[in-house]
Amino acid sequence: MKFCTALLLAGFSPKSAISFSYRALPAGTVNLSSSVERDVYNMAEWAAGYGVQQAEGVQLTSYDGQDYFPMTQTYIPAGSPVMYVPADLTFTSSKSLREFGNSLSMCENQLIQANLQDKVPLFRIFFKVVAEYEKGLDSPWYPWLNSLPRIFNTGASMTYACFDCLPPYAAYLALSERQNFVNFQKAIRNGPFSEEILKNVTVLKWAYNVALTRSTDIGGGERVIAPLADMFNHGSETEIKISFDGNGDCYAYATVDVPAGSPLRVSYGDPTDPTPLFASYGFLDESSPGTFCKLMNMRSEMEALGYTYANLLFYRETGGISSEVYDVVLYHVLLNSDDAGAADGFYRAVVSGDEGTKSQYHDQYWPYTKQELQKHVDGTLRDLERWSAKANSYDLNTHPRVPLILQHNAFVKETFLRVKMNLDAM
Ligand SMILES: *[C@@H]1O[C@H](CO)[C@@H](O)[C@H](O)[C@H]1NC(C)=O
Ligand SMILES: *[C@@H]1O[C@H](CO)[C@@H](O)[C@H](O)[C@H]1NC(C)=O
Protein backbone atom coordinates (compact mmCIF):
# COMPACT_ATOMS: atom_id res chain seq x y z
CA MET A 1 0.00 0.00 0.00
CA LYS A 2 1.18 3.48 -0.76
CA PHE A 3 0.31 6.35 1.54
CA CYS A 4 -0.55 9.55 -0.12
CA THR A 5 -0.77 12.54 2.19
CA ALA A 6 -2.29 14.72 -0.49
CA LEU A 7 -5.33 12.50 -0.64
CA LEU A 8 -7.82 14.92 0.83
CA LEU A 9 -11.07 14.69 -0.94
CA ALA A 10 -12.43 17.78 -2.52
CA GLY A 11 -15.61 18.96 -0.92
CA PHE A 12 -14.63 17.92 2.57
CA SER A 13 -15.06 20.96 4.74
CA PRO A 14 -16.23 20.33 8.28
CA LYS A 15 -18.69 23.06 9.12
CA SER A 16 -17.25 25.23 11.80
CA ALA A 17 -20.20 27.36 12.84
CA ILE A 18 -22.43 25.76 15.44
CA SER A 19 -25.97 26.76 16.07
CA PHE A 20 -26.58 29.25 18.83
CA SER A 21 -30.35 28.94 18.83
CA TYR A 22 -32.26 26.79 21.27
CA ARG A 23 -34.35 24.38 19.32
CA ALA A 24 -35.39 20.77 19.21
CA LEU A 25 -32.81 18.21 18.06
CA PRO A 26 -32.79 18.05 14.29
CA ALA A 27 -34.33 14.94 12.84
CA GLY A 28 -31.55 12.51 12.12
CA THR A 29 -29.46 12.83 15.27
CA VAL A 30 -27.89 9.49 16.03
CA ASN A 31 -30.37 7.20 17.78
CA LEU A 32 -28.69 6.30 21.08
CA SER A 33 -31.17 3.61 22.08
CA SER A 34 -29.24 0.62 23.43
CA SER A 35 -31.04 -1.71 21.03
CA VAL A 36 -29.77 0.08 17.91
CA GLU A 37 -27.04 -1.83 16.07
CA ARG A 38 -23.76 -0.12 15.28
CA ASP A 39 -23.49 0.75 11.60
CA VAL A 40 -19.80 -0.03 11.26
CA TYR A 41 -19.64 -1.00 7.61
CA ASN A 42 -21.09 2.27 6.30
CA MET A 43 -18.55 4.06 8.48
CA ALA A 44 -15.71 2.11 6.85
CA GLU A 45 -16.99 3.13 3.40
CA TRP A 46 -17.36 6.73 4.54
CA ALA A 47 -13.78 6.70 5.87
CA ALA A 48 -12.44 5.33 2.58
CA GLY A 49 -14.35 8.11 0.78
CA TYR A 50 -12.52 10.67 2.89
CA GLY A 51 -9.09 9.27 2.16
CA VAL A 52 -8.56 6.76 4.94
CA GLN A 53 -6.39 3.91 3.69
CA GLN A 54 -5.89 0.44 5.06
CA ALA A 55 -3.41 -2.29 4.21
CA GLU A 56 -4.82 -5.05 2.08
CA GLY A 57 -6.41 -7.75 4.19
CA VAL A 58 -7.24 -5.48 7.13
CA GLN A 59 -10.92 -5.86 7.99
CA LEU A 60 -13.25 -4.82 10.75
CA THR A 61 -14.33 -7.92 12.60
CA SER A 62 -16.73 -8.71 15.41
CA TYR A 63 -17.41 -11.84 17.42
CA ASP A 64 -20.45 -10.52 19.26
CA GLY A 65 -21.92 -7.76 17.06
CA GLN A 66 -20.99 -5.15 19.68
CA ASP A 67 -17.22 -5.00 19.80
CA TYR A 68 -15.62 -4.37 16.38
CA PHE A 69 -11.88 -4.30 15.81
CA PRO A 70 -9.44 -4.44 12.87
CA MET A 71 -8.00 -7.82 12.07
CA THR A 72 -5.70 -8.86 9.25
CA GLN A 73 -6.52 -11.65 6.80
CA THR A 74 -3.04 -11.50 5.32
CA TYR A 75 0.48 -11.60 6.71
CA ILE A 76 1.87 -8.14 7.58
CA PRO A 77 5.63 -7.77 8.00
CA ALA A 78 6.98 -5.63 10.86
CA GLY A 79 7.38 -1.97 9.92
CA SER A 80 4.60 -1.98 7.30
CA PRO A 81 1.94 0.71 7.22
CA VAL A 82 -1.45 -0.61 8.28
CA MET A 83 -3.69 2.43 8.30
CA TYR A 84 -3.61 6.08 7.33
CA VAL A 85 -6.13 8.71 8.49
CA PRO A 86 -5.82 12.23 7.03
CA ALA A 87 -5.67 15.10 9.51
CA ASP A 88 -8.91 16.64 8.18
CA LEU A 89 -10.85 13.74 9.62
CA THR A 90 -9.41 13.82 13.16
CA PHE A 91 -10.75 15.49 16.28
CA THR A 92 -8.00 17.16 18.28
CA SER A 93 -8.05 19.31 21.40
CA SER A 94 -6.33 22.21 19.65
CA LYS A 95 -8.61 22.11 16.61
CA SER A 96 -11.62 22.27 18.96
CA LEU A 97 -10.20 25.35 20.61
CA ARG A 98 -9.67 26.99 17.22
CA GLU A 99 -13.15 26.07 16.06
CA PHE A 100 -15.12 27.01 19.20
CA GLY A 101 -12.94 29.74 20.71
CA ASN A 102 -14.56 31.69 23.51
CA SER A 103 -17.64 29.55 23.87
CA LEU A 104 -15.35 26.61 24.67
CA SER A 105 -13.04 28.64 26.92
CA MET A 106 -15.96 29.78 29.04
CA CYS A 107 -16.88 26.18 29.76
CA GLU A 108 -13.28 25.25 30.43
CA ASN A 109 -13.01 27.93 33.09
CA GLN A 110 -15.66 26.10 35.03
CA LEU A 111 -13.61 22.91 34.87
CA ILE A 112 -10.50 24.76 35.99
CA GLN A 113 -12.40 26.13 38.96
CA ALA A 114 -13.31 22.56 39.85
CA ASN A 115 -9.57 21.80 39.84
CA LEU A 116 -9.74 19.70 36.69
CA GLN A 117 -7.17 21.52 34.54
CA ASP A 118 -5.72 18.20 33.47
CA LYS A 119 -9.08 17.24 31.94
CA VAL A 120 -9.19 20.25 29.59
CA PRO A 121 -7.78 18.36 26.54
CA LEU A 122 -10.42 15.65 27.01
CA PHE A 123 -13.15 18.26 27.50
CA ARG A 124 -12.29 19.80 24.12
CA ILE A 125 -12.83 16.46 22.42
CA PHE A 126 -16.08 15.95 24.36
CA PHE A 127 -17.29 19.40 23.24
CA LYS A 128 -16.60 18.55 19.60
CA VAL A 129 -18.43 15.23 19.89
CA VAL A 130 -21.47 17.02 21.33
CA ALA A 131 -21.32 19.65 18.58
CA GLU A 132 -21.22 17.06 15.81
CA TYR A 133 -23.93 14.97 17.48
CA GLU A 134 -26.21 18.00 17.56
CA LYS A 135 -25.85 18.54 13.82
CA GLY A 136 -27.34 15.13 13.11
CA LEU A 137 -27.21 14.21 9.42
CA ASP A 138 -25.61 17.56 8.65
CA SER A 139 -22.44 16.53 10.43
CA PRO A 140 -19.70 15.28 8.10
CA TRP A 141 -18.93 12.78 10.87
CA TYR A 142 -22.46 11.38 11.06
CA PRO A 143 -21.52 7.92 9.72
CA TRP A 144 -18.71 7.67 12.27
CA LEU A 145 -20.97 8.77 15.15
CA ASN A 146 -23.60 6.29 14.02
CA SER A 147 -21.05 3.47 14.07
CA LEU A 148 -20.11 3.97 17.72
CA PRO A 149 -21.24 1.80 20.61
CA ARG A 150 -24.41 2.86 22.44
CA ILE A 151 -23.57 0.86 25.54
CA PHE A 152 -20.48 1.57 27.63
CA ASN A 153 -19.33 -0.17 30.79
CA THR A 154 -16.98 2.56 31.96
CA GLY A 155 -16.87 3.98 35.47
CA ALA A 156 -18.82 6.97 34.17
CA SER A 157 -21.67 4.64 33.20
CA MET A 158 -21.70 2.78 36.50
CA THR A 159 -24.03 3.56 39.36
CA TYR A 160 -23.59 3.56 43.12
CA ALA A 161 -25.08 0.06 43.13
CA CYS A 162 -22.11 -1.01 40.94
CA PHE A 163 -19.52 0.72 43.12
CA ASP A 164 -20.93 -1.18 46.13
CA CYS A 165 -19.94 -4.48 44.52
CA LEU A 166 -16.34 -3.57 43.70
CA PRO A 167 -13.15 -3.65 45.77
CA PRO A 168 -12.32 -0.17 47.11
CA TYR A 169 -9.60 0.67 44.57
CA ALA A 170 -11.76 -0.26 41.56
CA ALA A 171 -14.73 1.53 43.12
CA TYR A 172 -12.61 4.61 43.75
CA LEU A 173 -11.32 4.75 40.14
CA ALA A 174 -14.77 4.11 38.68
CA LEU A 175 -16.33 6.75 40.90
CA SER A 176 -13.65 9.26 39.84
CA GLU A 177 -14.71 8.72 36.23
CA ARG A 178 -18.31 9.32 37.18
CA GLN A 179 -17.35 12.52 38.99
CA ASN A 180 -15.37 13.72 35.99
CA PHE A 181 -18.43 13.18 33.86
CA VAL A 182 -20.62 15.14 36.29
CA ASN A 183 -18.15 18.01 36.12
CA PHE A 184 -18.12 17.91 32.31
CA GLN A 185 -21.91 17.96 32.35
CA LYS A 186 -21.90 21.07 34.54
CA ALA A 187 -19.19 22.80 32.51
CA ILE A 188 -20.88 22.33 29.13
CA ARG A 189 -24.06 23.92 30.46
CA ASN A 190 -22.57 27.27 29.37
CA GLY A 191 -22.00 25.92 25.87
CA PRO A 192 -23.84 27.04 22.73
CA PHE A 193 -26.02 23.96 22.44
CA SER A 194 -29.75 23.40 22.52
CA GLU A 195 -31.51 22.81 25.83
CA GLU A 196 -32.49 19.36 24.56
CA ILE A 197 -28.82 18.42 24.43
CA LEU A 198 -27.68 20.17 27.58
CA LYS A 199 -30.41 18.57 29.67
CA ASN A 200 -30.09 15.11 28.18
CA VAL A 201 -27.85 12.99 30.40
CA THR A 202 -27.98 10.08 27.94
CA VAL A 203 -26.49 12.20 25.18
CA LEU A 204 -23.87 13.87 27.37
CA LYS A 205 -22.76 10.61 29.01
CA TRP A 206 -22.49 8.94 25.64
CA ALA A 207 -20.38 11.85 24.34
CA TYR A 208 -18.17 11.64 27.42
CA ASN A 209 -17.67 7.91 26.94
CA VAL A 210 -16.89 8.40 23.26
CA ALA A 211 -14.35 11.13 24.02
CA LEU A 212 -12.74 9.16 26.84
CA THR A 213 -12.55 5.73 25.29
CA ARG A 214 -11.68 6.68 21.70
CA SER A 215 -9.19 9.50 22.13
CA THR A 216 -5.48 9.13 22.72
CA ASP A 217 -3.24 11.42 24.74
CA ILE A 218 -0.38 12.36 22.44
CA GLY A 219 1.29 14.69 24.93
CA GLY A 220 1.59 18.46 25.05
CA GLY A 221 -2.00 18.86 26.20
CA GLU A 222 -3.35 17.27 23.03
CA ARG A 223 -5.79 14.39 22.65
CA VAL A 224 -6.79 12.99 19.28
CA ILE A 225 -9.50 10.79 17.84
CA ALA A 226 -8.67 9.47 14.38
CA PRO A 227 -11.83 7.78 13.03
CA LEU A 228 -11.22 4.15 12.04
CA ALA A 229 -7.84 4.18 13.83
CA ASP A 230 -9.98 4.48 16.99
CA MET A 231 -11.15 0.90 16.37
CA PHE A 232 -7.96 -0.83 17.52
CA ASN A 233 -8.50 -2.75 20.73
CA HIS A 234 -6.13 -2.86 23.67
CA GLY A 235 -3.68 -5.69 24.15
CA SER A 236 -1.03 -6.32 26.76
CA GLU A 237 0.85 -7.63 23.72
CA THR A 238 0.50 -5.29 20.76
CA GLU A 239 0.97 -5.43 17.01
CA ILE A 240 0.39 -1.77 16.15
CA LYS A 241 1.86 1.60 16.97
CA ILE A 242 0.07 4.81 16.05
CA SER A 243 1.88 8.04 15.30
CA PHE A 244 1.05 11.48 13.94
CA ASP A 245 3.20 13.51 11.57
CA GLY A 246 3.74 17.28 11.71
CA ASN A 247 0.64 17.80 9.60
CA GLY A 248 -1.52 15.83 12.04
CA ASP A 249 -1.98 12.89 9.69
CA CYS A 250 -2.32 9.61 11.53
CA TYR A 251 -0.28 6.52 10.66
CA ALA A 252 -0.62 3.05 12.14
CA TYR A 253 2.35 0.74 11.64
CA ALA A 254 2.94 -2.92 12.44
CA THR A 255 5.62 -3.20 15.13
CA VAL A 256 6.00 -6.97 14.71
CA ASP A 257 5.43 -9.56 11.99
CA VAL A 258 1.71 -10.21 12.11
CA PRO A 259 0.40 -13.58 10.91
CA ALA A 260 -2.80 -13.73 8.85
CA GLY A 261 -5.88 -14.05 11.05
CA SER A 262 -4.55 -11.91 13.90
CA PRO A 263 -6.32 -9.08 15.68
CA LEU A 264 -4.43 -5.79 15.48
CA ARG A 265 -3.97 -4.25 18.91
CA VAL A 266 -2.48 -1.14 20.48
CA SER A 267 -1.78 -0.30 24.10
CA TYR A 268 -4.27 1.92 25.96
CA GLY A 269 -2.06 2.07 29.03
CA ASP A 270 -0.05 0.14 31.62
CA PRO A 271 -1.12 -3.51 31.31
CA THR A 272 0.31 -4.70 34.66
CA ASP A 273 -2.91 -4.12 36.62
CA PRO A 274 -6.25 -4.35 34.76
CA THR A 275 -8.21 -2.16 37.18
CA PRO A 276 -7.38 1.36 35.85
CA LEU A 277 -8.29 0.25 32.30
CA PHE A 278 -11.42 -1.42 33.69
CA ALA A 279 -12.55 1.87 35.27
CA SER A 280 -11.77 4.09 32.26
CA TYR A 281 -12.61 1.81 29.35
CA GLY A 282 -15.02 -0.71 30.81
CA PHE A 283 -13.30 -3.97 29.90
CA LEU A 284 -11.26 -6.50 31.83
CA ASP A 285 -7.86 -7.35 30.36
CA GLU A 286 -7.59 -11.00 31.38
CA SER A 287 -4.01 -11.11 30.14
CA SER A 288 -2.86 -8.68 32.84
CA PRO A 289 -0.13 -10.31 34.91
CA GLY A 290 -1.41 -9.09 38.23
CA THR A 291 -3.54 -6.75 40.24
CA PHE A 292 -3.08 -4.01 42.80
CA CYS A 293 -2.80 -5.67 46.22
CA LYS A 294 -5.74 -3.55 47.50
CA LEU A 295 -3.95 -2.25 50.57
CA MET A 296 -6.03 0.94 50.53
CA ASN A 297 -5.61 1.42 54.27
CA MET A 298 -1.84 1.78 53.74
CA ARG A 299 -2.01 4.54 51.14
CA SER A 300 -0.10 7.02 53.28
CA GLU A 301 2.70 4.48 53.89
CA MET A 302 2.79 3.78 50.14
CA GLU A 303 3.12 7.48 49.33
CA ALA A 304 5.71 8.08 52.08
CA LEU A 305 7.93 5.36 50.60
CA GLY A 306 7.57 6.86 47.13
CA TYR A 307 5.49 4.04 45.64
CA THR A 308 2.33 4.09 43.56
CA TYR A 309 -0.58 1.67 43.17
CA ALA A 310 1.19 0.25 40.12
CA ASN A 311 4.10 -0.91 42.32
CA LEU A 312 1.96 -2.77 44.83
CA LEU A 313 1.11 -5.89 42.89
CA PHE A 314 0.00 -9.44 43.43
CA TYR A 315 0.75 -11.69 40.44
CA ARG A 316 -1.98 -13.90 39.09
CA GLU A 317 -0.09 -16.84 37.60
CA THR A 318 2.40 -17.33 40.41
CA GLY A 319 0.71 -15.79 43.43
CA GLY A 320 3.85 -13.69 43.72
CA ILE A 321 4.01 -10.51 45.77
CA SER A 322 6.02 -7.48 44.62
CA SER A 323 8.82 -6.44 46.99
CA GLU A 324 7.21 -3.01 47.42
CA VAL A 325 4.20 -4.68 49.06
CA TYR A 326 6.42 -6.15 51.77
CA ASP A 327 8.02 -2.74 52.33
CA VAL A 328 4.69 -0.99 52.71
CA VAL A 329 3.27 -3.63 55.04
CA LEU A 330 6.36 -3.69 57.25
CA TYR A 331 6.42 0.10 57.41
CA HIS A 332 2.77 0.03 58.45
CA VAL A 333 3.53 -2.59 61.12
CA LEU A 334 6.45 -0.58 62.49
CA LEU A 335 4.51 2.70 62.53
CA ASN A 336 1.80 0.99 64.54
CA SER A 337 4.25 -0.56 67.00
CA ASP A 338 5.80 1.21 69.97
CA ASP A 339 9.15 1.31 68.22
CA ALA A 340 9.28 4.69 66.43
CA GLY A 341 13.04 4.28 65.97
CA ALA A 342 12.54 1.10 63.95
CA ALA A 343 9.93 2.75 61.70
CA ASP A 344 12.30 5.62 61.04
CA GLY A 345 15.31 3.35 60.47
CA PHE A 346 13.37 1.21 58.01
CA TYR A 347 12.00 4.28 56.22
CA ARG A 348 15.52 5.63 55.72
CA ALA A 349 16.79 2.28 54.47
CA VAL A 350 14.00 2.14 51.85
CA VAL A 351 14.27 5.67 50.53
CA SER A 352 18.08 5.57 50.42
CA GLY A 353 18.04 2.20 48.66
CA ASP A 354 20.05 0.50 51.44
CA GLU A 355 19.10 -3.07 50.57
CA GLY A 356 21.22 -4.65 53.32
CA THR A 357 19.60 -2.78 56.17
CA LYS A 358 16.19 -3.21 54.54
CA SER A 359 16.45 -6.97 54.47
CA GLN A 360 17.67 -7.06 58.08
CA TYR A 361 14.45 -5.32 59.06
CA HIS A 362 12.45 -7.69 56.90
CA ASP A 363 14.06 -10.75 58.51
CA GLN A 364 13.63 -9.45 62.01
CA TYR A 365 9.95 -8.57 61.66
CA TRP A 366 8.87 -11.20 59.14
CA PRO A 367 6.29 -12.91 61.42
CA TYR A 368 4.50 -9.58 61.88
CA THR A 369 4.61 -8.72 58.17
CA LYS A 370 3.29 -12.16 57.30
CA GLN A 371 0.49 -11.94 59.85
CA GLU A 372 -0.58 -8.50 58.59
CA LEU A 373 -0.56 -9.68 54.97
CA GLN A 374 -2.54 -12.82 55.80
CA LYS A 375 -5.09 -10.75 57.64
CA HIS A 376 -5.43 -8.50 54.59
CA VAL A 377 -5.65 -11.32 52.04
CA ASP A 378 -8.16 -13.36 54.07
CA GLY A 379 -10.23 -10.25 54.73
CA THR A 380 -10.25 -9.26 51.06
CA LEU A 381 -11.30 -12.77 50.00
CA ARG A 382 -14.24 -12.58 52.41
CA ASP A 383 -15.15 -9.11 51.10
CA LEU A 384 -15.00 -10.34 47.49
CA GLU A 385 -17.51 -13.07 48.32
CA ARG A 386 -19.79 -10.46 49.80
CA TRP A 387 -19.42 -8.00 46.90
CA SER A 388 -20.03 -10.66 44.27
CA ALA A 389 -23.03 -12.05 46.17
CA LYS A 390 -24.46 -8.56 46.18
CA ALA A 391 -23.81 -8.13 42.44
CA ASN A 392 -25.52 -11.48 41.83
CA SER A 393 -28.59 -10.28 43.68
CA TYR A 394 -29.18 -7.46 41.16
CA ASP A 395 -31.58 -7.73 38.25
CA LEU A 396 -29.57 -7.93 35.02
CA ASN A 397 -32.16 -5.85 33.18
CA THR A 398 -31.59 -2.86 35.40
CA HIS A 399 -27.90 -3.59 36.14
CA PRO A 400 -26.39 -4.67 32.82
CA ARG A 401 -22.82 -4.25 34.11
CA VAL A 402 -23.09 -7.07 36.66
CA PRO A 403 -21.30 -9.67 34.46
CA LEU A 404 -18.31 -7.36 33.99
CA ILE A 405 -18.18 -6.61 37.72
CA LEU A 406 -18.30 -10.32 38.52
CA GLN A 407 -15.56 -10.97 35.98
CA HIS A 408 -13.39 -8.29 37.58
CA ASN A 409 -13.95 -9.66 41.07
CA ALA A 410 -13.26 -13.23 39.91
CA PHE A 411 -9.93 -12.09 38.46
CA VAL A 412 -9.00 -10.47 41.77
CA LYS A 413 -10.17 -13.51 43.74
CA GLU A 414 -8.15 -15.93 41.65
CA THR A 415 -5.03 -13.81 42.20
CA PHE A 416 -5.64 -13.48 45.93
CA LEU A 417 -6.22 -17.24 46.33
CA ARG A 418 -2.82 -17.96 44.75
CA VAL A 419 -1.18 -15.35 46.98
CA LYS A 420 -2.86 -16.92 50.00
CA MET A 421 -1.50 -20.36 49.14
CA ASN A 422 2.01 -18.93 48.89
CA LEU A 423 1.71 -16.89 52.05
CA ASP A 424 0.30 -19.69 54.15
CA ALA A 425 3.18 -21.93 53.05
CA MET A 426 5.89 -19.38 53.85
C1 LIG B 1 -32.21 11.97 25.27
O1 LIG B 1 -31.70 11.62 24.02
C2 LIG B 1 -31.92 10.26 23.68
C3 LIG B 1 -31.14 9.96 22.41
O2 LIG B 1 -31.43 10.86 21.42
C4 LIG B 1 -33.40 10.04 23.54
O3 LIG B 1 -33.65 8.70 23.20
C5 LIG B 1 -34.07 10.37 24.85
O4 LIG B 1 -35.48 10.28 24.72
C6 LIG B 1 -33.69 11.77 25.32
N1 LIG B 1 -34.18 11.96 26.66
C7 LIG B 1 -34.88 13.01 27.02
C8 LIG B 1 -35.28 13.09 28.45
O5 LIG B 1 -35.18 13.88 26.23
C1 LIG C 1 -34.48 4.46 18.09
O1 LIG C 1 -34.29 3.07 17.93
C2 LIG C 1 -35.21 2.30 18.68
C3 LIG C 1 -34.77 0.84 18.56
O2 LIG C 1 -34.56 0.46 17.26
C4 LIG C 1 -36.60 2.55 18.14
O3 LIG C 1 -37.54 1.78 18.87
C5 LIG C 1 -36.91 4.04 18.27
O4 LIG C 1 -38.15 4.30 17.71
C6 LIG C 1 -35.83 4.87 17.61
N1 LIG C 1 -36.07 6.27 17.91
C7 LIG C 1 -36.22 7.19 17.00
C8 LIG C 1 -36.44 8.59 17.47
O5 LIG C 1 -36.14 6.92 15.82
Automatic annotation (TrEMBL):
What SUPFAM superfamilies does this protein's entry cite? SET domain
> Which InterPro entries does this entry report, sorted A to Z?
SET_dom_sf, SETD3_SETD6_MTase
Superkingdom of the organism of origin: Eukaryota
Known PANTHER family for this protein? SET DOMAIN-CONTAINING PROTEIN, UNCHARACTERIZED PUTATIVE METHYLTRANSFERASE
Query: What's the protein here called?
Result: SET domain-containing protein
- Organism of derivation: Cyclostephanos tholiformis
